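Researcher: Quick test of sequence recovery. Tokens follow.
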């Protein structure tokens, strides 16, 4: 046996050169076809067994044949990757590295082909993002491609992420749900990978959810063991996502006690970071799993004490249970944990806003402003962020007041001879937004003269504020001369944005500004659409840019894509009042078009 292992060792040193003559190059191996046609599964199994034969030449010949078979042998090779015979396992792993998958197929849509071209040359972190992008594509092709990744991706982690992307992909109706499951069944083949088993259990749950629970529980147990033994293959977030699927199945079957027992498993899974722990608490609040939340608070006590966001999550849980005094205590503890540090309050405010905790975010912004001198950068940034948030929530009077305080303080400092970085520039921008918010407040009160006065003041301070120009363009009672003036101002601002694009064509800001301005007023709507799409190409999955894309589709009359883009924006920022209002406008237009 020792001699056999030594022979294997020296053989592997020359294996690449042998395969160069005996087998096709990796580039010749395809995910769609082989030179040899269909290969019998029994033949592949026999060849894999021969990889451990005592005869060196038998082992070599079997390896050469398996290399020639290529992708057709992938499933069987994957199953043998951890064979107890180290000779077989070593050769199998080498063969798996040799196989090159041709990710794209002729039937794939253009956008998916583009994503797969990037996938073929990307590193693993970039591939994670591409898996998410593919998952956002419509049925049936997105699920088909994700199954391809589940089955043939050499990275166990990426295979898992692709499987979860399929499981979590939203479907519109029963027909789409059935289509999704048919695609999974047709594309998995005989793959022995754990991720393929996840998908088979997912499909089976539709037909017999009760029977599939046992399988799902076993798969979840297996994944927890993998997390403990092979950390590079999975993540705690993956185990938690699987657990959420199990809880959803139990809840659907009205097995409340079993669902609660399943949720308690979260205490044995250490979240990767506090943000993930906060998201977990949010999920438990939705499930109304109050006992589990109490247990989690004790289990992660030290982590809660160190992170105000986690304390706010506990406050939300207490509030949901009607425990007002306990909720207030958690809020106070959260705010006190940042001391009087304006930077901490500011960062907490941003995180709370992102998580949709708007009243608490507003309070944290105000604490940041209060804790810092009025001309400090953190104060100025917090005031602007707070004002924009208040405007988004329809509180325009308060938004204007916040910026008035900011501008007044900075101008007083400048007049006193104290230097403020970019003071003159930002005061014009802030003052313009202040007047714009005041104009919005006047509009809400049907005060048209007051609205117009404020809009004129705003555009005087910042001629490139697209929102102000849009409001002036839409103003109901303008003379022809005033209309002509506004159109000229719009064209001038558009030219400024075009110059910004020319000077910095890899920045998405100019593209988005131009698209938003034209899409809401007049001009070349196709140019606006192209610019909006370019901004998202430069910075994918940005809610504000998807919001602009929705407006541009609306401008060209494509209501379906307008609504689709707007829904994507709202999914990223579900608590944005402005985005919600624009969606209602698109949906109303579509309903009127049908009637």
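Model:
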């Amino acid at each position: 046996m020792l001699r056999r292992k030594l022979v294997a060792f020296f053989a592997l040193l020359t294996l690449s050169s042998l395969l160069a003559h005996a087998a096709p190059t990796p580039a010749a191996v395809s995910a769609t076809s082989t030179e040899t046609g269909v290969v019998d599964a029994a033949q592949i199994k026999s060849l894999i067994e021969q990889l451990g034969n005592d005869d060196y030449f038998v082992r070599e010949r079997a390896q050469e044949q398996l290399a020639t078979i290529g992708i057709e042998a992938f499933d069987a090779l994957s199953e043998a990757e951890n064979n107890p015979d180290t000779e077989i396992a070593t050769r199998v792993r080498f063969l798996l590295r040799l196989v090159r998958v041709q990710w794209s197929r002729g039937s794939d849509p253009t956008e998916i082909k583009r994503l797969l071209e990037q996938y073929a040359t990307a590193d693993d972190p970039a591939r994670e993002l591409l898996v998410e992008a593919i998952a956002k594509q419509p049925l049936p092709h997105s699920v088909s491609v994700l199954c391809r990744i589940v089955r043939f991706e050499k990275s166990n982690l990426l295979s898992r992420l692709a499987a979860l992307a399929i499981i979590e992909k939203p479907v519109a109706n029963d027909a789409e749900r059935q289509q999704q499951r048919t695609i999974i069944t047709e594309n998995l083949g005989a793959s022995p990978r754990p991720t393929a088993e996840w998908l088979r259990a997912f499909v089976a749950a539709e037909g017999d959810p009760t029977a599939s629970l046992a399988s799902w529980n076993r798969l979840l147990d297996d994944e927890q063991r993998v997390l403990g033994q092979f950390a590079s293959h999975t993540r705690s977030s993956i185990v938690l996502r699987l657990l959420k699927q199990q809880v959803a199945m139990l809840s659907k079957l009205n097995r409340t006690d079993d669902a609660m027992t399943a949720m308690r498993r979260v205490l044995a899974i250490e979240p990767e970071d506090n943000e993930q722990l906060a998201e977990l608490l949010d999920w438990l609040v939705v499930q109304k799993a109050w006992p589990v939340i109490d247990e989690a608070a004790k289990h992660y006590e030290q982590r809660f004490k160190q992170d105000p966001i986690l304390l706010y999550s506990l406050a939300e849980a207490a509030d949901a249970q009607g425990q007002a005094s306990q909720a207030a205590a958690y809020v106070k503890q959260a705010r006190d944990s940042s001391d009087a540090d304006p930077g901490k309050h500011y960062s907490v405010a941003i995180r709370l806003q992102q998580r949709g905790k708007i009243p608490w975010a507003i309070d944290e912004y105000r604490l940041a402003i209060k804790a810092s001198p009025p001309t400090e950068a953190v104060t100025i940034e917090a005031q602007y962020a707070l004002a924009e948030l208040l405007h988004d929530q329809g509180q325009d009077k308060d938004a204007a007041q916040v910026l008035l305080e900011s501008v007044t303080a900075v101008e007083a400092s400048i007049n006193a001879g104290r230097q403020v970085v970019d003071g003159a520039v930002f005061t014009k921008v802030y003052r313009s937004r202040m007047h714009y918010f005041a104009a919005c407040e006047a509009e809400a009160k049907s005060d048209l003269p007051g609205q117009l006065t404020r809009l004129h003041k705003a555009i005087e301070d910042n001629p490139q504020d697209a929102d102000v120009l849009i409001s002036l363009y839409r103003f109901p009672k303008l003379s022809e001369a005033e209309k002509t003036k506004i159109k000229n101002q719009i064209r001038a601002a558009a030219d400024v944005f075009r110059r910004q694009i020319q000077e910095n064509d890899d920045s998405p800001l100019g593209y988005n500004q131009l698209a938003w301005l034209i899409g809401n007023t007049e001009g070349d709507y196709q140019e606006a659409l192209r610019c909006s799409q370019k901004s998202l190409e430069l910075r994918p999955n940005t809610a504000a840019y998807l919001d602009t894309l929705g407006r541009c589709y609306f401008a060209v009359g494509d209501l379906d894509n307008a609504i689709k883009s707007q829904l994507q924006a709202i999914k990223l920022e579900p608590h944005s009042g402005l985005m919600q209002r624009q969606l209602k406008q698109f949906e109303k237009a579509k309903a009127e078009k049908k009637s």
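The mean pLDDT is 86.
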